[in-house]
């Protein structure tokens, strides 16, 4: 992972801009196409998965830019209150980036567990914020979102990883055409 991150930091900004485009595409697919793939009205969170991938691949400055952008998109297209994702996504991106500097997170199974834990913690914080704002969430629905959503996000993580790998292919294609 460290070798891949160093290579990515040395490369130009083309991959970063394509990665932003992939975030937009995944956000739009999350709010449109994934409605057909929901189980008990719970869907995987592609933007949290992209946040994990970006936090492991880019330098801290771009991790914060990508996470703020992804959080704003999730707040715009989602039903979360008071820009909670715009605040929490950079926090998660920062913590994941620092964690990836301390331990090796190369294996996909470790990344899947990490994205599952992140989804779980993110939704606990979101639920606490909703409760503090006076909104009540039935316990059964909240638990279903926590556990089933964590499982679905981890299950779809390899797909999101493959989609983000297309950014490297697109970067090569752009270089050849230039």
Using the alpha-carbon principal axes, give the shape. globular
Largest sheet composition = none
Rg, Å, rounded: 16 Å
Helical fraction: over 70%
Number of strands: 0
Total number of helices: 7
- End-to-end CA span: 29 Å
Structural class: mainly alpha
Strand content: under 5%
Q: Provide the residue-averaged pLDDT.
A: 83
Could you list the spans in which at least 5 consecutive residues all have pLDDT below 50?
Answer: none
Domain tally: 1
H/E element order: HHHHHHH
Task: Characterise the protein shown here.
By secondary structure, the protein is mainly alpha-helical. The chain has one domain. The chain is 79% helix and 0% strand. It has seven helices and no strands. The two termini are 29 Å apart.
Feature tags:
mainly alpha; 178 residues
Summarize the structure.
This protein has helices at 2-10, 14-31, 46-57, 60-77, 84-102, 108-132, 139-177. By secondary structure, it is an all-alpha fold.
């Amino acid at each position: 992972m460290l070798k891949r991150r160093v290579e990515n930091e040395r490369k130009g900004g083309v991959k970063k801009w394509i990665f932003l485009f992939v975030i937009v595409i995944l956000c739009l697919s999350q709010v449109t196409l994934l409605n057909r793939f929901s189980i008990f009205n719970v869907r995987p969170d592609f933007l949290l998965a992209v946040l994990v991938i970006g936090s492991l691949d880019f330098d801290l400055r771009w991790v914060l830019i990508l996470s703020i952008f992804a959080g704003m998109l999730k707040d715009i297209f989602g039903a979360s209150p008071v820009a909670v994702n715009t605040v929490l996504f950079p926090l998660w991106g920062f913590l994941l980036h620092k964690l990836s500097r301390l331990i090796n997170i190369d294996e996909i199974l470790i990344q899947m567990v990490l994205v599952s834990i992140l989804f779980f913690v993110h939704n606990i914080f979101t639920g606490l914020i909703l409760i503090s704002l006076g909104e009540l969430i039935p316990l059964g629905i909240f638990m279903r979102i926590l556990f089933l959503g964590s499982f679905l996000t981890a299950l779809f993580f390899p797909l999101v990883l493959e989609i983000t790998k297309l950014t490297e292919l697109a970067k090569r294609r752009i270089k050849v055409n230039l």
